[in-house]
Design a protein that fits this description.
heterodimer, A: about 110 residues, mainly beta, six-stranded mixed sheet, globular, B: about 110 residues, seven-stranded mixed sheet, four-stranded antiparallel sheet
Chain lengths: ~110, ~110
């Protein structure tokens, strides 16, 4: 079956760096997405990786290793507003998105 | 403003009373999708549509219907709602396959008593 694994919850300190991991097993691969979702709100797009390597976008970076079925989202200079759930999703061979359950990130002052 | 809209945002209903949740996008997107989100389970796809008059089942289609008569609209229909359909529902759209991000509506919180 298809599976996306990410930690349920993480805690970090304001100003620090945090890495949220995602491992996947899917039928084919057409890219990996990261979304941010604040409580009670809609998910919003953060990043897309289809080739191996690191994609940097401001304070957020996303890494992909297709051979390992692994990705991470790196958040730098954490701010209180970064408290949210982070969703990993993989697009399979049928171009359908398979979603992880999300990682709830708690930022402490 | 490019957006996906859903109505209603909140709904409390009773078992068996048919309801429709509307979804509309103004970005001329081909692809539209419905998800439900439950604690600890993440987003699960209910139905999706690749274009007008083309719809397909997602992972959890039982108890739901959809239609895609126009490109911009993709309503979700619950013919006979049951309490296990109490959930947070999201509509999403994108411009098609590949690395195109999905844009999500604000969500509809449905409670079935």
């Amino acid at each position: 079956g298809q599976n996306i694994d990410q930690p349920t919850e993480m805690t970090a300190t304001e100003g620090a760096i945090v890495q949220i991991n995602c491992t996947y097993q899917t039928s084919g691969f057409n890219g990996l997405f990261w979304y941010q979702q604040h409580a009670g709100e809609a998910p919003t797009f953060l990043s897309y990786n289809v080739l191996d390597g690191l994609e940097e976008k401001g304070r957020f970076s996303s890494f992909l290793s297709r051979s390992k079925g692994y990705s991470y989202l790196l958040l730098k200079e954490l701010q209180m507003k970064d408290s949210a759930s982070y969703l990993c999703a993989v697009m399979d061979s049928n171009y359908q998105l398979i979603w992880g359950a999300g990682t709830k990130l708690i930022i402490k002052p | 403003e490019a957006q996906v809209t859903q109505n209603p945002r909140y709904l409390i209903t009773v078992t068996g009373k048919k309801l429709t949740v509307t979804c509309s996008q103004n970005m001329n997107h081909e692809y539209m999708s419905w998800y439900r989100q439950d604690p600890g389970l993440g987003l699960r796809q209910i139905y999706y549509s690749m274009n007008v008059e083309v719809t397909d089942k997602g992972d959890v289609p039982e108890g739901y219907k959809v239609s895609r008569k126009e490109k911009r609209n993709f309503p979700l229909i619950l013919e006979s709602p049951s309490p296990n359909q109490t959930s947070l529902y999201f509509c999403a759209s994108s411009s098609g396959e590949g690395g195109n991000e999905q844009f999500f509506g604000p969500g509809t919180r449905l409670t079935v008593l």
